[in-house]
Amino acid sequence: MARAILDYEPNIIHLSGHGEGENGILLEDETGQAKFVSPETLSDLFKLFAEHVECVILNACYSETQAKTICQHIDYVIGMNTAIQDRAAIEFSVGFYDALSNGRDYDFAYNLGRQYISMAGVQQADVPQLMKKRSLLNPVISLGVNGSAEREYDNSPDRILNWTKYYDFNAQPRKLATPEIWQEDLLPELQKKRDELAQGRRDLTLDLRGMIPLSGAFAIGTVFQETRGFILQVEQSTGSSGFWKSSEKPSNLKFRVTQEHGHAGRNLCIALAISRPSWPQVQKLYENPVYGINAVVYLEPDTETGACDRALPTNADAIALVDHTKDLVDHYRQHYSADRIHLVFVCPMGFAALLGHRLRAVGEIVTYEFTKSVEEPYIPSVIVNP
User: Fold this and answer.
1) How far is CA 112 from CA 95, 310, 357, in A?
2) Measuring CA to CA, which residue among 201, 197, 190, 194 is closest to residue 229?
3) Measured between alpha carbons, how far is 69 from 77 in angstroms, rounded to an integer?
4) pTM of the predicted model as reported, rounded to 2 decimal places
5) Is the alpha carbon torsion for 253, 257, 263, 265 positive or negative?
6) pLDDT band at 39 (very low <50, low <70, confident <90, very high)
7) Which CATH number fits domain 2-133: 3.40.640.10, 3.40.50.2300, 3.40.50.1460, 3.40.50.150?
C-alpha cells in the first residue's frame, strides 16, 4: 500500500476489507498472506503522506477505532462503528463518489452516501462515521493587538489592531482610551475585525496576542464571546507560558471576599485583585461621589498568599476563577439589586479576556483602568452590555 501511495500520490485512499476494532485492519503482506495492521501503524503511515492525502475511507467492519487514530493527521476519515453489510458498503461508496464527481465537498459526500444506504432500504445509514482533524473542527483565526506598545510577532496574525495612539502606559498619569473613544472607534473596529475574520463561520478558535490593556482584553472577549461560537486562546506569560484556552477544564481554585461594604442600589463595584492587593485604590474609587457606587465587593484568590504575581500559575486556575467570578457577579447583583456593574481588574491580561468571553446577561458593565495617579487611581474605560 505504501508503494502505491508513493506512485500515485492520491488525495483519497479507500480501503475495503475486514476489520476487528483495536486489532486493526486485515491487509495482505508481500507474500500474499493476510496480516492485521494496527491502528497506530496505519496512522503513522498516513501521517507521512498527510501533505496530499485529504480523505481516508475504511470500508471495513469495526474500523471506527482506526479512524479515530488516523484523523489526528488526515483531515477527513470515515470508519464503520460496527459490522457493515456488503450492500450498505457499496451504496455508501456510490453516493460518496457521486457527490465528489459533481464538485461537492467531503461533508456533503458523506451525508449523500448515508442517504443512498437509506434509499436502498438497508438499515445501516448510521454505521459510517465521519471524523475530522481537530484543526477543521475549530479553525484558528488570529488577532494581534498593539495596545500599550507595538510588538513584533513570530507568526504574523491574520489581523492587527494598533491602539498605541490611545494608550501610553509610560506617561504619568497613564494615557488611556476614554469610554467615548471606545464607543465611537474601538468597539466598532473590533466588531468589524470579528466579522472579517469569521466570515459567517462558527466554531472558530481566536488566537489573541499582544500588549493589551486589561479593559481592552475584556472588551475583546465580549466581542468574540462564547455564545457566538468562539473558542478563545490567549497568549499568556504569567505563570506557565504559552496560551490560556477557554476550553480548559477548571481547577478547584476560588475567590474569597476580603472586603464588602455598602447598601442596595443600582451601582455595584466588583474588584478582582489577583496579581497584587489593591484595596486602598479600590476604596478610593468606591468613595468617589462622581461614580455613585452604592456597594463594593473586593475579591482575592482563596490561597495562602492571596493576591500576588503567582496567584494564577495555570490555565485551569484561570478558568476556575473566571467561572467563580460569573457566579459571584450574579449573586451580588441580585443581593444588592444592582443593574450596573463597575468592574476593576488587577489580573493577568489573559484572565480579563477569558472573563469577557464567558460573562454575559448581567446588565451594563463599566470597566476601569489603573492610572497610577494617587488622587484618582482608577477611571472608567470600556462600557459594554454582554
Assistant:
1) 5, 54, 37
2) 201
3) 9
4) 0.68
5) negative
6) confident
7) 3.40.50.1460
